[in-house]
Amino acid sequence: MGIRSTTMYAAGLASIGLSVASWATSLRYERAGIDRADRWGIFIGQWAPTFFALGTALQMEETRQETMSEEQRMRMGEREPSHMPVGAHA
Q1: pTM of structure
Q2: What would the pLDDT profile of 11-25 be if each residue is shown by its tens digit?
């Protein structure tokens, strides 16, 4: 889908900031009191772990794809493994 792990990590950090901002805004501009402000802050704050978990999953997938691509290139003879001297074969 084109979404990278760094995008999800950024969304997690943004949701933390948005949580604090929504709490402060609700506390200041709504007359419902601190209970409602707390609910807004907690509601938005619960998004962060989801974004971080998605970022971790995407990072694992990105790493797997990079590893597979490298192995495929080595099998096709395009590149020697970096830990073996040039010309040496297993």
Answers
A1: 0.64
A2: 999 999 988 888 888
